[in-house]
Amino acid sequence: MKPFHSYQNPSLAIDLVVFGYQQRTLSVLLLNRNEMPFKDTWTLPGAFLQMDERFKDTCSRVLKTKLGMDNVYLEQLYSFDEPERDPRGRVIAIAHYALINPKNFAITAGSMANDVQWFDIHQMPELGFDHQEIFTQALQRLRSKILYFPVGFELLDDLFTMPELHELYECILDTTIDRRNFRRKILDAQYIINTGKKREGLQNRHPDLYKFNKKLPKNAFQLNIN
Amino acid sequence: MKPFHSYQNPSLAIDLVVFGYQQRTLSVLLLNRNEMPFKDTWTLPGAFLQMDERFKDTCSRVLKTKLGMDNVYLEQLYSFDEPERDPRGRVIAIAHYALINPKNFAITAGSMANDVQWFDIHQMPELGFDHQEIFTQALQRLRSKILYFPVGFELLDDLFTMPELHELYECILDTTIDRRNFRRKILDAQYIINTGKKREGLQNRHPDLYKFNKKLPKNAFQLNIN
DNA sequence: TAACTTTGTGTCAAATCAACGCAAAGAAGC
DNA sequence: GCTTCTTTGCGTTGATTTGACACAAAGTTA
């Protein structure tokens, strides 16, 4: 085995794919770099891992200091090792993705500098580094994960209606899903609980308000949407 | 952003969960350490990432030089960041898993030093570092992946029979699977192709020989074994 | 040749799924 | 008020898939 201490360790970066959902649109948070390399190019937010940090600490630091977000759902995605991925030298990226609830979405959308911006996932600019590939993998992961684990709720308020949930799934999966079959399956899967309350407001029939089921049974399963 | 060059980067290790299959037994390759820390303790094989290496290069180097294996199926698993996971200092581990075909299994099983050994996954010793957790995750990944992707073939010879494949799945998933339903599903999924040949030998009825379908249709799917 | 093991193929009732109908609740227009 | 329209909740039905078996063909053993 090689000597343990080495001044030749690659740098370790954490890159973040931050997803938000509002107005029937799935969006990603991008950052316009103000320094070389890739100056004036949109990229994923990120930072270098500090010696005493765990991955999620670095994620939280980025989300907090750069974007003013707290209490965010985080998941490790994949590690990227292409030697030429950063022109400055060898940088390994440990990519994560984050799901932002509407409260955080609204705060950041209002107060952000113009070098930080939400982009509809269908209308993204070209990205610097290998961030296009990282983004693509993150979206793929989100799409497959939502089919077997109740992860979408992180993108909604605590209380939500069935049509809202239905639209979220259609939006993430980018398909149409039969409203009535979706309802039956998501209820069978026990992902959500009917609170008994109803959403009052402008709509026609007032829809029931649901919440995420925090202790969902062990035998959770494939949703198999349509 | 922090300064780019830093002498304080964590070390980067690649750890490998090497799976092999023979005699209806799923096994893992372990290494008995001959130096501190964890001297005389069984651990997963691994090495530190060199500056010019991609992850898979490091994997191949370990497999080749320590274990004499070539042409191995490799997949990145997960990255482990617990600051105390290595008593020598901060070491990030990028875990991978490997699937070894019987040819390589036989070679290594015969020629290995006694500090390298295959262990039935049901009869493993205690592992050093956080390798027990890494192993557990690898096994979990293999078990879920085999349900939606034809990955098991990496553990078999190029030609194999239906009963052999059936036993492999039972062994990996650690359940019993109805022989006839398994057959129907694996054929429906178009994972394999009947070569027309038959395995001659000691057995009773000579079973058909199949091969892995290398261009399997895009619409690949959940197997949903029993 | 008979008994037994192993492998390939088929059957069938039960469960699941996709497609769709319909009525209740509320809004909008008259 | 009354009618019409939209939205939401709840069912139904026919087709498909699934799990549990039966059975026959191929080979071995005695």
From TrEMBL, chains A, B:
Looking up CDD domains in the UniProt record yields:
NUDIX_NadM_like
NrtR DNA-binding winged helix domain residues are 152-212
Q: Which SUPFAM superfamilies match?
A: Nudix (SSF55811), Winged helix' DNA-binding domain (SSF46785)
**Where is the signal peptide, in residue numbers?**
none
Q: Which Pfam families match?
A: NUDIX, WHD_NrtR
Query: Domain of life here?
Result: Bacteria
By its UniProt entry, which InterPro entries does this protein fall under? Answer: NUDIX_hydrolase-like_dom_sf, NUDIX_hydrolase_dom, WH-like_DNA-bd_sf, WH_DNA-bd_sf, WHD_NrtR
Question: Domain Nudix hydrolase, which positions?
Answer: 12-133
Q: Where are the annotated coiled coils located?
A: none
Q: Can you name this protein?
A: NUDIX domain-containing protein
